[in-house]
Amino acid sequence: MLGAPLPELLPSAFTAADAAAAGVARSRLRAADLGHPFHGIYVVTDARSPVLRPEDEIIDRAAIANLRLGDGAFFSHLTAAVLWGVPLPPGPLLMHDDLDVGVLHPARPPRGRGVRGHRVQPEHVRLTLHPEHRLPVPTPASTWAMLGRVLRHPYDLVAVADALVSDRRYGMAAPLATRAQLEAAVFTKRRVGVCALREALTQVQPRVASRTETWTRLVIVDAGLPEPLINHWVVDGDGRCIACVDLAYPRWKVAVEYEGSHHLVDAAQWAADIRRYEGLAAEGWCVIRVTSEELFRYPERLVLRVRRAIRAAV
Asked: Among the four residues 47, 50, 76, 89, which has the most C-beta atoms within 10 Å?
Protein backbone atom coordinates (compact mmCIF):
# COMPACT_ATOMS: atom_id res chain seq x y z
CA MET A 1 0.00 0.00 0.00
CA LEU A 2 1.34 3.43 -0.96
CA GLY A 3 1.60 6.13 1.65
CA ALA A 4 1.05 9.87 1.57
CA PRO A 5 3.36 11.95 -0.64
CA LEU A 6 6.77 12.53 0.91
CA PRO A 7 8.05 16.07 1.50
CA GLU A 8 9.77 17.47 -1.58
CA LEU A 9 12.87 18.32 0.42
CA LEU A 10 13.61 14.62 0.96
CA PRO A 11 15.97 13.13 -1.67
CA SER A 12 15.25 9.76 -3.30
CA ALA A 13 17.52 8.08 -0.72
CA PHE A 14 17.38 9.28 2.88
CA THR A 15 17.98 8.19 6.45
CA ALA A 16 15.42 7.65 9.17
CA ALA A 17 16.79 10.77 10.87
CA ASP A 18 16.23 12.78 7.68
CA ALA A 19 12.63 11.54 7.54
CA ALA A 20 11.97 12.42 11.17
CA ALA A 21 13.42 15.90 10.67
CA ALA A 22 11.08 16.39 7.70
CA GLY A 23 8.07 15.35 9.80
CA VAL A 24 7.54 11.93 8.21
CA ALA A 25 5.85 9.43 10.54
CA ARG A 26 7.64 6.12 11.18
CA SER A 27 4.60 4.25 9.86
CA ARG A 28 5.07 5.99 6.48
CA LEU A 29 8.49 4.33 6.15
CA ARG A 30 6.79 0.92 5.90
CA ALA A 31 4.87 1.85 2.71
CA ALA A 32 5.33 -0.20 -0.47
CA ASP A 33 6.94 2.64 -2.43
CA LEU A 34 9.98 2.68 -0.13
CA GLY A 35 12.86 0.23 -0.15
CA HIS A 36 14.96 -0.48 2.95
CA PRO A 37 18.35 -1.69 1.62
CA PHE A 38 20.41 -0.86 4.72
CA HIS A 39 19.72 -0.28 8.39
CA GLY A 40 18.33 3.22 8.84
CA ILE A 41 18.26 4.01 5.09
CA TYR A 42 15.19 4.25 2.85
CA VAL A 43 14.89 4.60 -0.92
CA VAL A 44 12.00 5.75 -3.06
CA THR A 45 11.83 2.70 -5.32
CA ASP A 46 10.15 4.31 -8.34
CA ALA A 47 12.75 7.11 -8.37
CA ARG A 48 15.76 4.86 -8.94
CA SER A 49 17.17 4.46 -12.44
CA PRO A 50 17.08 0.93 -13.89
CA VAL A 51 20.32 -0.94 -13.24
CA LEU A 52 21.78 -2.73 -16.25
CA ARG A 53 25.07 -4.19 -14.94
CA PRO A 54 26.17 -5.73 -11.62
CA GLU A 55 28.79 -2.97 -11.35
CA ASP A 56 26.12 -0.29 -11.69
CA GLU A 57 24.05 -1.87 -8.93
CA ILE A 58 27.04 -2.01 -6.59
CA ILE A 59 27.91 1.64 -7.25
CA ASP A 60 24.27 2.60 -6.74
CA ARG A 61 24.08 0.76 -3.40
CA ALA A 62 27.40 2.21 -2.23
CA ALA A 63 26.13 5.76 -2.81
CA ILE A 64 23.06 4.94 -0.71
CA ALA A 65 25.01 3.17 2.05
CA ASN A 66 27.33 6.17 2.30
CA LEU A 67 24.48 8.09 3.94
CA ARG A 68 25.14 6.19 7.17
CA LEU A 69 28.81 5.32 6.81
CA GLY A 70 30.48 5.87 10.17
CA ASP A 71 33.38 8.22 10.76
CA GLY A 72 36.60 6.67 9.48
CA ALA A 73 34.80 3.92 7.54
CA PHE A 74 35.48 3.37 3.85
CA PHE A 75 34.46 1.06 1.02
CA SER A 76 37.04 -1.68 0.55
CA HIS A 77 37.97 -4.88 -1.30
CA LEU A 78 35.60 -5.79 -4.16
CA THR A 79 33.36 -2.77 -3.59
CA ALA A 80 36.34 -0.42 -3.91
CA ALA A 81 37.54 -2.31 -7.00
CA VAL A 82 34.15 -1.78 -8.65
CA LEU A 83 34.22 1.91 -7.78
CA TRP A 84 37.65 2.24 -9.44
CA GLY A 85 36.31 0.49 -12.55
CA VAL A 86 38.91 -2.28 -12.76
CA PRO A 87 38.07 -5.52 -14.63
CA LEU A 88 36.80 -8.28 -12.38
CA PRO A 89 35.62 -11.83 -13.10
CA PRO A 90 31.83 -12.15 -13.33
CA GLY A 91 31.45 -14.66 -10.48
CA PRO A 92 32.35 -12.38 -7.55
CA LEU A 93 30.30 -9.54 -9.05
CA LEU A 94 27.13 -11.62 -9.36
CA MET A 95 27.51 -12.86 -5.78
CA HIS A 96 28.36 -9.44 -4.35
CA ASP A 97 25.25 -9.14 -2.18
CA ASP A 98 27.01 -7.28 0.65
CA LEU A 99 29.10 -4.15 0.32
CA ASP A 100 32.65 -4.32 1.68
CA VAL A 101 33.17 -1.64 4.33
CA GLY A 102 36.46 -1.29 6.17
CA VAL A 103 37.69 0.48 9.27
CA LEU A 104 41.20 0.94 10.61
CA HIS A 105 42.41 -1.19 13.52
CA PRO A 106 41.49 -1.10 16.39
CA ALA A 107 38.01 0.15 15.43
CA ARG A 108 35.21 -2.42 15.39
CA PRO A 109 34.17 -3.58 11.88
CA PRO A 110 30.66 -2.47 10.93
CA ARG A 111 27.78 -4.94 10.94
CA GLY A 112 24.31 -4.79 9.53
CA ARG A 113 22.08 -5.56 6.60
CA GLY A 114 23.92 -5.52 3.27
CA VAL A 115 27.36 -4.83 4.78
CA ARG A 116 30.46 -7.03 5.11
CA GLY A 117 32.78 -5.44 7.65
CA HIS A 118 36.60 -5.55 7.58
CA ARG A 119 39.19 -4.40 10.10
CA VAL A 120 42.30 -3.21 8.24
CA GLN A 121 45.75 -2.58 9.63
CA PRO A 122 46.67 1.11 9.09
CA GLU A 123 50.00 0.21 7.45
CA HIS A 124 48.13 -1.85 4.82
CA VAL A 125 46.04 0.92 3.32
CA ARG A 126 46.13 4.49 2.06
CA LEU A 127 42.77 6.21 1.85
CA THR A 128 41.38 8.80 -0.54
CA LEU A 129 38.10 10.24 -1.79
CA HIS A 130 37.03 8.80 -5.11
CA PRO A 131 37.25 11.68 -7.63
CA GLU A 132 34.05 10.72 -9.48
CA HIS A 133 31.80 9.02 -6.94
CA ARG A 134 32.93 11.14 -3.96
CA LEU A 135 33.05 8.09 -1.71
CA PRO A 136 35.83 7.13 0.75
CA VAL A 137 37.98 4.32 -0.68
CA PRO A 138 41.54 3.02 -0.56
CA THR A 139 43.84 4.30 -3.27
CA PRO A 140 43.87 2.17 -6.45
CA ALA A 141 47.12 0.49 -5.39
CA SER A 142 45.81 -0.29 -1.90
CA THR A 143 42.58 -1.62 -3.42
CA TRP A 144 44.55 -4.00 -5.64
CA ALA A 145 46.55 -5.26 -2.67
CA MET A 146 43.28 -6.06 -0.84
CA LEU A 147 42.24 -8.32 -3.71
CA GLY A 148 45.08 -10.74 -2.95
CA ARG A 149 42.73 -12.52 -0.52
CA VAL A 150 39.66 -12.26 -2.77
CA LEU A 151 40.49 -13.15 -6.38
CA ARG A 152 41.12 -16.85 -6.74
CA HIS A 153 42.79 -16.99 -10.15
CA PRO A 154 46.26 -15.42 -10.42
CA TYR A 155 45.50 -14.11 -13.92
CA ASP A 156 42.76 -11.90 -12.50
CA LEU A 157 45.19 -10.31 -10.05
CA VAL A 158 47.45 -9.51 -12.98
CA ALA A 159 44.48 -8.21 -15.02
CA VAL A 160 43.53 -5.72 -12.31
CA ALA A 161 47.13 -4.53 -11.97
CA ASP A 162 47.44 -4.26 -15.76
CA ALA A 163 44.33 -2.06 -15.82
CA LEU A 164 45.67 0.20 -13.06
CA VAL A 165 49.02 0.90 -14.76
CA SER A 166 47.67 0.91 -18.32
CA ASP A 167 47.64 4.01 -20.51
CA ARG A 168 45.10 2.30 -22.78
CA ARG A 169 42.00 2.55 -20.56
CA TYR A 170 39.49 4.55 -22.53
CA GLY A 171 38.33 7.79 -20.96
CA MET A 172 41.22 7.96 -18.50
CA ALA A 173 43.56 10.95 -18.61
CA ALA A 174 46.34 8.96 -16.94
CA PRO A 175 46.90 5.53 -15.36
CA LEU A 176 45.27 5.06 -11.97
CA ALA A 177 48.51 3.79 -10.40
CA THR A 178 52.18 3.31 -11.09
CA ARG A 179 54.13 0.11 -10.76
CA ALA A 180 56.06 1.68 -7.88
CA GLN A 181 52.79 2.33 -6.04
CA LEU A 182 51.72 -1.29 -6.53
CA GLU A 183 55.05 -2.48 -5.17
CA ALA A 184 54.77 -0.18 -2.14
CA ALA A 185 51.26 -1.49 -1.42
CA VAL A 186 52.39 -5.11 -1.54
CA PHE A 187 55.65 -5.03 0.37
CA THR A 188 54.17 -4.51 3.82
CA LYS A 189 54.37 -6.97 6.68
CA ARG A 190 51.81 -9.71 7.34
CA ARG A 191 49.49 -8.97 4.44
CA VAL A 192 47.09 -11.77 3.50
CA GLY A 193 47.69 -12.95 -0.06
CA VAL A 194 51.12 -11.32 -0.31
CA CYS A 195 52.69 -14.28 -2.16
CA ALA A 196 50.06 -14.16 -4.90
CA LEU A 197 50.41 -10.38 -5.18
CA ARG A 198 54.20 -10.51 -5.47
CA GLU A 199 53.97 -13.17 -8.17
CA ALA A 200 51.39 -11.10 -10.05
CA LEU A 201 53.71 -8.08 -9.97
CA THR A 202 56.30 -9.97 -12.02
CA GLN A 203 53.79 -10.31 -14.88
CA VAL A 204 52.27 -6.81 -14.99
CA GLN A 205 52.46 -4.98 -18.31
CA PRO A 206 51.37 -1.48 -19.36
CA ARG A 207 49.32 -0.71 -22.51
CA VAL A 208 46.79 -3.49 -21.81
CA ALA A 209 43.22 -2.52 -22.67
CA SER A 210 41.14 -5.37 -21.18
CA ARG A 211 40.98 -8.36 -18.84
CA THR A 212 40.78 -10.73 -21.80
CA GLU A 213 43.98 -9.31 -23.28
CA THR A 214 45.74 -10.09 -20.01
CA TRP A 215 44.35 -13.62 -19.91
CA THR A 216 45.26 -14.28 -23.56
CA ARG A 217 48.82 -13.08 -23.05
CA LEU A 218 49.35 -15.11 -19.87
CA VAL A 219 47.90 -18.30 -21.36
CA ILE A 220 50.33 -18.00 -24.26
CA VAL A 221 53.41 -17.08 -22.22
CA ASP A 222 52.79 -19.63 -19.46
CA ALA A 223 52.71 -22.32 -22.15
CA GLY A 224 56.32 -21.48 -22.99
CA LEU A 225 55.75 -19.29 -26.04
CA PRO A 226 57.60 -15.96 -26.42
CA GLU A 227 56.20 -12.79 -24.86
CA PRO A 228 54.14 -10.99 -27.53
CA LEU A 229 54.05 -7.25 -28.08
CA ILE A 230 50.91 -5.61 -26.68
CA ASN A 231 48.62 -3.40 -28.79
CA HIS A 232 51.14 -3.32 -31.61
CA TRP A 233 50.63 -1.09 -34.65
CA VAL A 234 51.19 -2.90 -37.96
CA VAL A 235 52.33 -0.77 -40.91
CA ASP A 236 52.44 -1.59 -44.61
CA GLY A 237 55.37 -1.22 -46.99
CA ASP A 238 54.66 2.49 -47.39
CA GLY A 239 54.73 3.10 -43.63
CA ARG A 240 50.96 3.50 -43.32
CA CYS A 241 49.27 2.12 -40.21
CA ILE A 242 46.98 -0.81 -41.04
CA ALA A 243 45.79 -1.95 -37.63
CA CYS A 244 46.55 -2.07 -33.94
CA VAL A 245 46.46 -5.73 -32.88
CA ASP A 246 45.98 -6.99 -29.34
CA LEU A 247 49.07 -9.22 -29.29
CA ALA A 248 51.72 -9.49 -31.98
CA TYR A 249 54.80 -11.41 -33.04
CA PRO A 250 56.21 -9.07 -35.73
CA ARG A 251 59.14 -11.39 -36.46
CA TRP A 252 56.74 -14.10 -37.69
CA LYS A 253 53.84 -11.80 -38.65
CA VAL A 254 51.46 -13.53 -36.27
CA ALA A 255 48.71 -11.53 -34.55
CA VAL A 256 46.38 -12.71 -31.78
CA GLU A 257 43.05 -10.89 -31.50
CA TYR A 258 40.38 -11.45 -28.86
CA GLU A 259 36.86 -11.28 -30.30
CA GLY A 260 34.39 -9.95 -27.73
CA SER A 261 30.65 -10.21 -28.23
CA HIS A 262 30.47 -6.61 -29.46
CA HIS A 263 32.44 -7.65 -32.54
CA LEU A 264 29.50 -9.84 -33.57
CA VAL A 265 26.51 -7.66 -32.70
CA ASP A 266 27.85 -4.27 -33.81
CA ALA A 267 27.57 -4.05 -37.61
CA ALA A 268 30.00 -1.14 -37.88
CA GLN A 269 32.57 -2.96 -35.74
CA TRP A 270 32.15 -6.13 -37.80
CA ALA A 271 32.74 -4.22 -41.05
CA ALA A 272 35.81 -2.51 -39.57
CA ASP A 273 37.16 -5.89 -38.44
CA ILE A 274 36.82 -7.29 -41.96
CA ARG A 275 38.78 -4.37 -43.41
CA ARG A 276 41.47 -4.73 -40.76
CA TYR A 277 41.91 -8.46 -41.30
CA GLU A 278 42.02 -8.05 -45.08
CA GLY A 279 44.70 -5.41 -44.70
CA LEU A 280 46.74 -7.62 -42.38
CA ALA A 281 46.41 -10.61 -44.72
CA ALA A 282 47.61 -8.47 -47.63
CA GLU A 283 50.80 -7.76 -45.68
CA GLY A 284 51.33 -11.45 -44.95
CA TRP A 285 50.06 -11.53 -41.38
CA CYS A 286 48.33 -14.57 -39.88
CA VAL A 287 45.54 -13.45 -37.52
CA ILE A 288 44.45 -15.84 -34.77
CA ARG A 289 41.00 -14.82 -33.55
CA VAL A 290 40.20 -15.91 -29.99
CA THR A 291 36.73 -16.41 -28.50
CA SER A 292 35.65 -16.41 -24.86
CA GLU A 293 34.95 -20.15 -24.94
CA GLU A 294 38.41 -20.97 -26.25
CA LEU A 295 40.20 -18.64 -23.82
CA PHE A 296 38.46 -19.68 -20.62
CA ARG A 297 37.44 -23.30 -21.36
CA TYR A 298 39.94 -24.64 -23.91
CA PRO A 299 43.12 -22.55 -23.58
CA GLU A 300 45.24 -25.46 -24.83
CA ARG A 301 43.59 -25.04 -28.25
CA LEU A 302 44.66 -21.40 -28.33
CA VAL A 303 48.24 -22.32 -27.44
CA LEU A 304 48.33 -24.96 -30.17
CA ARG A 305 47.07 -22.52 -32.81
CA VAL A 306 49.66 -19.89 -31.88
CA ARG A 307 52.47 -22.45 -31.80
CA ARG A 308 51.50 -23.81 -35.21
CA ALA A 309 51.33 -20.32 -36.71
CA ILE A 310 54.81 -19.47 -35.45
CA ARG A 311 56.25 -22.76 -36.71
CA ALA A 312 54.68 -22.22 -40.13
CA ALA A 313 56.34 -18.80 -40.37
CA VAL A 314 59.81 -19.93 -39.35
From this structure: 76
